[in-house]
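INFO  loader      accepted 1 record
INFO  loader      residues=318
INFO  predictor   begin
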Amino acid sequence: MIIILSNREDITADYVILELRKRKVDFFRFNTEDFPLNVKLSLNYGTTNFLQTPNNKIIPFSDIQSIWYRRPILPDFNKFRLEKGVEDFCTKESFAALEGAWTLLDCNWVSNPFNIRKAEIKPFQLSVASEIGFKIPKTLISNDSELIKNFYLKNNKCTIVKPIKTSVVKKVAGEDIIFTSSVQDFAIEKVSKCIPIPSIFQERLPKKYDIRVTVIGEQVFPVEIHSQDFRDSMVDWRQGENPKIKHLRHELPKDISDKCLQLNKRLGLKFSAIDFVFTPNGDYYFLEINPNGQWAWIEERTGYKLTESLVDLLCLEK
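INFO  predictor   done
INFO  writer      dumping tokens
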């Protein structure tokens, strides 16, 4: 039995499900917003721990070979129209039960959720990447307006800013996405008057193109993203989601490829998406690692067999 932990809106999970069905592998897609209303969890110490699916199938923990920790979300109690405090309590208790279950599952995790959580911490991943030997941009994480101004000037005003944790701002009318952006003179002049939240500031490196490396187990799949061909994507290739940006397979030097695998091992990951800047001088600069990054579009654009590689990994014994 293979468990896919995700949510109803996750289209990428469908790629893996189709491949599992093709191979006739038994699986259960656990959309975590369905817990605890439609999925049941029982932890019976000394006997059997199990999940019960919406169609009442019992899945003992001992039958679970692998879990793909894809994109689970919080349990959903909206239909009950609870008071805010009561809804928060129900959500936290349900999430705590799931986290407890994860600690008791001795199986092949892709990847372990607690390792994912730690690896997502950008100050930590930058430190580990530097220790391994990756080049990283000059970086300042701060909410001190004077230090930020000095950093901007020392980098000849070639500086970018990006969030430390999340790039999504939820509002009543919808969501805003915060992309990596160039710091401008007018923003620096106003920085002391802004809400003093810390952000990541880095030197803006010259780019030949961006590189996204998808790591699946012991396999490395590097792709050139020719972000410099269009103005909107020069700083952040995700901005505008331009379908015309050229994607090409890339051959990494062995030492960079080996370091990607080493970084995954250091962070306790079996899957990751790593972003680099490739400079006109041929240097690779590590930007960040996403332990659960998107990859389906890379398969579509390059022909890399990422789905098959991921299912191969899930079908391995622990």
